[in-house]
Amino acid sequence: METVESGWDDFWAEVMRVKYRSSVQGIAQYDDMLVECCIQLLALKRGDAILDIACGAGDHSLLFCRHGLEVTGFDISKTLIKTAQQRALQQSLDVDFHVGDMRVMKLKRKYNGAAILSHSFGFFDDEVNRRILERVHDSLLEGGGLLIDLMNPYNLPRFHPTWTKLEGGYLLTEPYVLDAQAGVLRGRPAVFIDTDRDRVILMNSDAMSNNDIRMYTALEIRSLLEDAGFIRIDMYGQNKLPRVPYSASSERMVVVAFR
Protein backbone atom coordinates (compact mmCIF):
# COMPACT_ATOMS: atom_id res chain seq x y z
CA MET A 1 0.00 0.00 0.00
CA GLU A 2 1.40 3.39 -1.04
CA THR A 3 2.00 6.07 1.62
CA VAL A 4 1.62 9.76 0.70
CA GLU A 5 1.60 13.04 2.62
CA SER A 6 -1.14 15.61 2.17
CA GLY A 7 -1.26 19.34 2.95
CA TRP A 8 -3.82 21.32 4.92
CA ASP A 9 -6.20 22.12 2.08
CA ASP A 10 -6.32 18.57 0.78
CA PHE A 11 -6.34 16.64 4.04
CA TRP A 12 -8.25 18.95 6.38
CA ALA A 13 -10.70 20.15 3.74
CA GLU A 14 -11.58 16.95 1.92
CA VAL A 15 -11.07 14.32 4.62
CA MET A 16 -12.00 16.14 7.84
CA ARG A 17 -14.49 18.82 6.78
CA VAL A 18 -16.35 16.84 4.12
CA LYS A 19 -15.88 13.08 4.58
CA TYR A 20 -15.56 13.01 8.39
CA ARG A 21 -18.12 15.73 9.16
CA SER A 22 -20.82 14.04 7.10
CA SER A 23 -20.28 10.81 9.07
CA VAL A 24 -20.96 12.40 12.49
CA GLN A 25 -24.20 11.05 13.93
CA GLY A 26 -26.83 13.76 14.45
CA ILE A 27 -24.83 16.45 12.63
CA ALA A 28 -27.84 17.70 10.63
CA GLN A 29 -29.90 18.29 13.79
CA TYR A 30 -26.87 19.91 15.45
CA ASP A 31 -26.47 22.32 12.53
CA ASP A 32 -30.17 23.20 12.57
CA MET A 33 -30.03 24.07 16.27
CA LEU A 34 -26.80 26.05 15.86
CA VAL A 35 -28.14 28.17 13.01
CA GLU A 36 -31.41 28.85 14.83
CA CYS A 37 -29.38 29.91 17.88
CA CYS A 38 -27.26 32.27 15.78
CA ILE A 39 -30.30 33.93 14.25
CA GLN A 40 -31.92 34.46 17.64
CA LEU A 41 -28.79 35.73 19.43
CA LEU A 42 -27.94 38.11 16.58
CA ALA A 43 -31.59 39.24 16.35
CA LEU A 44 -31.66 38.65 12.58
CA LYS A 45 -34.82 38.73 10.48
CA ARG A 46 -35.69 37.65 6.93
CA GLY A 47 -33.86 39.75 4.36
CA ASP A 48 -30.97 40.63 6.68
CA ALA A 49 -27.43 39.98 5.47
CA ILE A 50 -25.03 37.66 7.30
CA LEU A 51 -21.33 37.03 6.77
CA ASP A 52 -20.30 33.41 7.42
CA ILE A 53 -16.55 33.53 8.11
CA ALA A 54 -14.58 30.30 7.60
CA CYS A 55 -17.75 28.79 6.17
CA GLY A 56 -16.17 25.46 5.23
CA ALA A 57 -18.27 23.42 2.81
CA GLY A 58 -21.26 25.72 3.36
CA ASP A 59 -23.26 23.61 5.82
CA HIS A 60 -24.37 26.62 7.89
CA SER A 61 -24.42 29.15 5.05
CA LEU A 62 -27.01 27.07 3.21
CA LEU A 63 -29.18 26.83 6.33
CA PHE A 64 -28.94 30.60 6.90
CA CYS A 65 -30.16 31.02 3.32
CA ARG A 66 -33.10 28.67 3.96
CA HIS A 67 -34.09 31.00 6.81
CA GLY A 68 -34.44 33.87 4.35
CA LEU A 69 -31.11 35.60 4.98
CA GLU A 70 -28.79 37.05 2.36
CA VAL A 71 -25.60 35.06 2.89
CA THR A 72 -21.96 35.65 2.02
CA GLY A 73 -19.71 32.74 2.91
CA PHE A 74 -15.98 32.61 2.52
CA ASP A 75 -13.22 30.19 3.39
CA ILE A 76 -9.50 29.95 2.68
CA SER A 77 -9.91 26.47 1.18
CA LYS A 78 -10.60 26.29 -2.55
CA THR A 79 -11.68 22.68 -2.09
CA LEU A 80 -14.34 23.60 0.47
CA ILE A 81 -15.67 26.58 -1.47
CA LYS A 82 -16.02 24.43 -4.58
CA THR A 83 -18.01 21.89 -2.55
CA ALA A 84 -20.16 24.67 -1.06
CA GLN A 85 -20.93 26.10 -4.50
CA GLN A 86 -21.90 22.68 -5.82
CA ARG A 87 -24.21 22.10 -2.85
CA ALA A 88 -25.87 25.50 -3.32
CA LEU A 89 -26.46 24.71 -6.99
CA GLN A 90 -27.90 21.28 -6.18
CA GLN A 91 -30.27 22.79 -3.59
CA SER A 92 -31.20 25.81 -5.76
CA LEU A 93 -30.01 28.22 -3.07
CA ASP A 94 -28.48 31.63 -3.76
CA VAL A 95 -25.40 32.00 -1.54
CA ASP A 96 -22.43 34.19 -2.41
CA PHE A 97 -19.41 31.93 -1.76
CA HIS A 98 -15.82 33.18 -2.08
CA VAL A 99 -12.31 31.88 -1.48
CA GLY A 100 -10.79 34.29 1.04
CA ASP A 101 -8.46 34.72 4.00
CA MET A 102 -10.01 36.21 7.14
CA ARG A 103 -6.79 38.16 7.72
CA VAL A 104 -7.27 40.21 4.55
CA MET A 105 -11.03 40.36 4.07
CA LYS A 106 -12.11 42.70 1.28
CA LEU A 107 -15.86 43.10 1.44
CA LYS A 108 -18.06 45.21 -0.81
CA ARG A 109 -21.00 45.60 1.55
CA LYS A 110 -22.02 45.88 5.20
CA TYR A 111 -23.81 43.13 7.13
CA ASN A 112 -26.45 42.89 9.83
CA GLY A 113 -24.56 40.00 11.40
CA ALA A 114 -21.49 37.80 11.15
CA ALA A 115 -20.65 34.35 12.47
CA ILE A 116 -17.46 32.41 13.13
CA LEU A 117 -18.61 28.90 13.98
CA SER A 118 -17.08 25.55 14.96
CA HIS A 119 -14.17 27.16 16.84
CA SER A 120 -12.76 28.65 13.63
CA PHE A 121 -11.26 31.63 15.46
CA GLY A 122 -7.80 31.67 17.04
CA PHE A 123 -5.55 30.21 14.35
CA PHE A 124 -3.07 33.11 14.56
CA ASP A 125 -1.24 35.15 17.20
CA ASP A 126 -3.11 37.62 19.40
CA GLU A 127 -2.33 40.68 17.29
CA VAL A 128 -3.49 39.07 14.05
CA ASN A 129 -6.61 37.72 15.75
CA ARG A 130 -7.38 41.23 17.03
CA ARG A 131 -7.01 42.69 13.53
CA ILE A 132 -9.41 40.04 12.21
CA LEU A 133 -12.00 41.20 14.74
CA GLU A 134 -11.43 44.81 13.69
CA ARG A 135 -12.15 43.87 10.07
CA VAL A 136 -15.33 42.06 11.10
CA HIS A 137 -16.36 45.07 13.18
CA ASP A 138 -15.86 47.35 10.17
CA SER A 139 -17.95 45.02 7.98
CA LEU A 140 -21.02 45.34 10.21
CA LEU A 141 -23.83 47.85 10.02
CA GLU A 142 -24.39 50.02 13.08
CA GLY A 143 -25.97 47.76 15.71
CA GLY A 144 -24.84 44.62 13.89
CA GLY A 145 -23.44 41.70 15.83
CA LEU A 146 -20.78 39.02 15.63
CA LEU A 147 -21.27 35.52 17.07
CA ILE A 148 -18.18 33.39 17.79
CA ASP A 149 -18.77 29.74 18.73
CA LEU A 150 -15.82 28.45 20.78
CA MET A 151 -14.86 25.48 22.90
CA ASN A 152 -14.83 26.26 26.62
CA PRO A 153 -11.15 26.34 27.68
CA TYR A 154 -12.15 25.30 31.21
CA ASN A 155 -14.21 22.31 30.07
CA LEU A 156 -12.61 20.82 26.98
CA PRO A 157 -13.99 17.62 25.46
CA ARG A 158 -12.11 14.45 26.32
CA PHE A 159 -10.25 13.57 23.14
CA HIS A 160 -9.42 9.92 22.44
CA PRO A 161 -7.81 8.08 19.53
CA THR A 162 -10.63 7.00 17.21
CA TRP A 163 -11.13 4.91 14.08
CA THR A 164 -14.01 6.10 11.90
CA LYS A 165 -15.44 4.45 8.79
CA LEU A 166 -15.82 7.07 6.08
CA GLU A 167 -16.75 7.13 2.43
CA GLY A 168 -13.79 5.56 0.65
CA GLY A 169 -11.82 4.45 3.69
CA TYR A 170 -11.05 4.75 7.40
CA LEU A 171 -9.85 7.71 9.46
CA LEU A 172 -7.57 7.41 12.51
CA THR A 173 -7.45 10.54 14.66
CA GLU A 174 -5.22 11.18 17.67
CA PRO A 175 -6.19 13.39 20.64
CA TYR A 176 -5.51 17.11 20.61
CA VAL A 177 -2.82 18.17 23.08
CA LEU A 178 -3.38 21.27 25.22
CA ASP A 179 -0.29 23.44 25.60
CA ALA A 180 -1.42 25.02 28.86
CA GLN A 181 1.42 27.53 29.11
CA ALA A 182 0.76 28.89 25.62
CA GLY A 183 -3.02 28.55 25.84
CA VAL A 184 -2.99 26.65 22.54
CA LEU A 185 -4.67 23.42 21.52
CA ARG A 186 -2.08 21.66 19.35
CA GLY A 187 -3.40 20.05 16.17
CA ARG A 188 -3.91 16.31 16.27
CA PRO A 189 -2.24 14.04 13.73
CA ALA A 190 -4.56 11.97 11.59
CA VAL A 191 -4.23 9.15 9.06
CA PHE A 192 -6.68 8.31 6.29
CA ILE A 193 -6.69 4.78 4.88
CA ASP A 194 -7.86 5.35 1.31
CA THR A 195 -9.34 1.98 0.37
CA ASP A 196 -10.49 3.26 -3.04
CA ARG A 197 -6.91 4.01 -4.12
CA ASP A 198 -5.11 1.50 -1.89
CA ARG A 199 -2.97 4.09 -0.11
CA VAL A 200 -2.29 5.66 3.30
CA ILE A 201 -2.58 9.46 3.50
CA LEU A 202 -0.63 11.22 6.26
CA MET A 203 -0.88 14.86 7.35
CA ASN A 204 2.28 16.78 6.44
CA SER A 205 3.85 19.46 8.67
CA ASP A 206 1.75 22.19 7.01
CA ALA A 207 -1.47 20.35 7.81
CA MET A 208 -0.36 19.84 11.41
CA SER A 209 0.86 23.37 12.19
CA ASN A 210 -2.17 25.06 10.63
CA ASN A 211 -4.44 23.09 12.96
CA ASP A 212 -3.12 24.69 16.16
CA ILE A 213 -5.69 26.99 17.76
CA ARG A 214 -5.63 29.54 20.56
CA MET A 215 -7.89 28.76 23.51
CA TYR A 216 -9.03 32.15 24.75
CA THR A 217 -10.55 32.62 28.18
CA ALA A 218 -13.68 34.76 28.54
CA LEU A 219 -11.59 37.66 29.89
CA GLU A 220 -9.14 37.44 26.99
CA ILE A 221 -11.73 37.27 24.21
CA ARG A 222 -13.68 40.14 25.78
CA SER A 223 -10.52 42.27 25.83
CA LEU A 224 -9.80 41.51 22.16
CA LEU A 225 -13.36 42.40 21.15
CA GLU A 226 -13.31 45.66 23.11
CA ASP A 227 -9.97 46.60 21.53
CA ALA A 228 -11.55 45.90 18.12
CA GLY A 229 -14.35 48.40 18.84
CA PHE A 230 -17.26 46.21 19.99
CA ILE A 231 -19.33 47.80 22.74
CA ARG A 232 -21.80 45.20 24.03
CA ILE A 233 -20.51 41.70 24.68
CA ASP A 234 -22.61 38.78 25.94
CA MET A 235 -21.53 35.20 26.64
CA TYR A 236 -23.54 31.99 26.62
CA GLY A 237 -22.78 28.43 27.66
CA GLN A 238 -24.21 26.48 24.73
CA ASN A 239 -24.60 26.93 20.98
CA LYS A 240 -28.29 26.09 20.96
CA LEU A 241 -31.46 27.49 22.49
CA PRO A 242 -32.49 28.28 25.18
CA ARG A 243 -29.97 30.92 26.20
CA VAL A 244 -27.80 29.70 29.09
CA PRO A 245 -25.29 31.97 30.87
CA TYR A 246 -21.64 31.03 30.39
CA SER A 247 -19.76 29.38 33.28
CA ALA A 248 -16.57 27.36 33.75
CA SER A 249 -18.56 24.14 33.41
CA SER A 250 -20.42 25.14 30.20
CA GLU A 251 -20.16 22.87 27.17
CA ARG A 252 -19.29 25.83 24.88
CA MET A 253 -18.33 29.49 25.07
CA VAL A 254 -20.55 31.41 22.67
CA VAL A 255 -19.60 35.08 22.42
CA VAL A 256 -21.96 37.66 20.92
CA ALA A 257 -20.61 41.19 20.39
CA PHE A 258 -22.33 44.23 18.87
CA ARG A 259 -20.94 47.43 17.38
SSE topology:
Blueprint lengths: L1 E5 L1 H16 L3 H15 L7 E5 L5 H8 L3 E6 L2 H13 L5 E4 L11 E6 L9 H14 E12 L10 E5 L2 E5 L3 E3 L4 E3 L3 E5 L4 E5 L1 H5 L3 E2 L3 H10 L4 E5 L15 E7 L1
Parallel strand pairs: 1-12, 2-3, 2-5, 3-4, 5-6
Antiparallel strand pairs: 6-15, 7-8, 8-11, 9-10, 10-13, 11-12, 14-15
Helix pairs in contact: 2-3
Q: Sum up the overall morphology in one term.
A: globular
Helix and strand composition category: alpha/beta
Name of the CATH first level of the largest domain: Alpha Beta
Amount of helix: 25-40%
CATH superfamily of the largest domain: Vaccinia Virus protein VP39
Strand content: 25-35%
Reported by name, the CATH topology of the largest domain is Rossmann fold
Q: In sequence order, what are the helices and strands, one letter per element?
A: EHHEHEHEEHEEEEEEEHEHEE
Q: What does this 3D model show about the protein?
A:
The chain is of the alpha/beta class. The protein folds into 2 domains: 8-152 and 216-258, 3-Layer(aba) Sandwich (Rossmann fold); 156-209. The chain contains 7 helices and 15 strands. The protein has helices at 8-23, 27-41, 59-66, 78-90, 126-139, 205-209, 218-227; strands at residues 2-6, 49-53, 70-75, 96-99, 111-116, 140-151, 162-166, 169-173, 177-179, 184-186, 190-194, 199-203, 213-214, 232-236, 252-258. Strands 4-3-2-5-6-15-14 form a 7-stranded mixed sheet, with helices on both faces. Helix 2 (27-41) crosses helix 3. It starts with a strand and ends with a strand.
